[in-house]
Design goal:
By secondary structure, the chain is of the alpha/beta class. The chain has five helices and twelve strands. The longest helix is centred in the N-terminal third of the chain and has 20 residues.
């Protein structure tokens, strides 16, 4: 498939899914995010992990703010990303307090510069990933900047879990060789094991 055609296809899917997500009311986002949180927190892989990386949600994404606050109370390590726009990559920072966050790149909450505490990727056992859309095989479409693909490509030991609303699950996401799939997807209705059958 020619590159330009491939990119147009991805852009079309991305726009359609972002439009659908934008139509969700704040109440729908909040209530469905609670259902997703409950499924995530009951997973044995989550319960066993002492160090988890969360994305900090914005723009009608599955709401992770309460997940992060609750996990911080459990005295476990919470890692959050900081966007390095110059190098087009994510810096990983341990988060000690919700109050250490401020609006950063792309309007997303990130640790303040004086609160960034870099953390090694290889010590993270579970990574919670945002996405504009997924298919049931774990193929993901993001915002097109490649930040998370670069991160996931280098995190061989961690379990990758995508959070999404059911409206963000499509039949097939077109991918290239550099695109990285997730291991599981949690929606408000189900947990999709992308390596096996749904359960």
């Amino acid at each position: 498939m020619q590159n330009s055609m491939f990119n147009r296809m991805k852009d079309s899917i991305r726009k359609d899914l972002k439009d659908k997500r934008a139509e969700l009311s704040k109440n729908e986002v909040f209530e469905n995010s609670i259902r997703i949180k409950n499924k995530l927190f009951k997973m044995k892989e989550f319960e066993r992990s002492s160090c988890i990386m969360f994305y900090v949600s914005y723009d009608n994404e599955v709401y992770t703010h309460d997940m992060i606050k609750e996990y911080l109370k459990n005295k476990k390590k919470v890692i959050v990303p900081v966007s390095d726009k110059k190098n087009r990559c994510l810096i990983l920072s341990e988060l000690n307090s919700w109050n250490d966050l401020k609006l950063g790149s792309y309007g997303i909450l990130e640790p303040r510069a004086d609160k960034i505490k870099k953390f090694p990727l290889e010590q993270i056992g579970l990574i919670i990933i945002p996405g504009v859309g997924y298919d049931e095989q774990g193929r993901r479409i993001g915002h097109g900047k490649g930040y998370y693909d670069n991160l996931l490509r280098n995190s061989k030991n961690a379990l990758h879990i995508g959070l999404a609303f059911e409206i963000q699950i499509v039949k097939e996401i077109p991918v290239e060789s550099h695109d990285i799939s997730v291991d599981k997807i949690i929606t408000e209705k189900r947990v999709i094991d992308c390596k096996k059958d749904d359960y």
